[in-house]
Amino acid sequence: MHANIIEPVTPEFYAVFESDSRQRLRGRDENDWPVLATALALACPVWTEDEDFFGTGVAVWTTNRIEIFLKAQAKSIESLEE
Q1: First to last CA, the chain
Q2: Nearest alpha-carbon partner for 59 in 36, 82, 75
């Protein structure tokens, strides 16, 4: 069986985290709650430039931080191959 890299999630998957997500986003853009709820359900970080997610209790990665991380990973792989 081949697992997909990207899997869609249904609202039923993250709905249990709606109240918590809305509370964490209170005073910000509460319409972002499904993204935060999904991150909570999956126990994973959020890749975003949206500052509303900062300080919500989940790790937030911005594009420039991801670029630094991926370059470091590539460098590590290159050094292992030498």
Answers
A1: 33
A2: 36
Q: Quick: pLDDT tens for 52-79.
A: 999 999 999 999 999 999 999 999 888 8
Exposure string of 49-81, with b = 16+ CB inside 10 Å and e = fewer, is eeebbeebebebebeeeeeeeeeeeeeeeeeee
Q: Which DSSP string corresponds to 1-68?
A: ----SS----HHHHGGGHHHHHHHTTTS-GGGHHHHHHHHHHT--EE-S-GGGTTSSS-EE-HHHHHH
Q: How many CA atoms lie within 13 A of 44 on its CB side?
A: 9
Tell me the C-alpha distance between 22 and 32, whole Å: 8
Bridge partners (DSSP) of residue 61 are 47
pTM more than 0.85: no
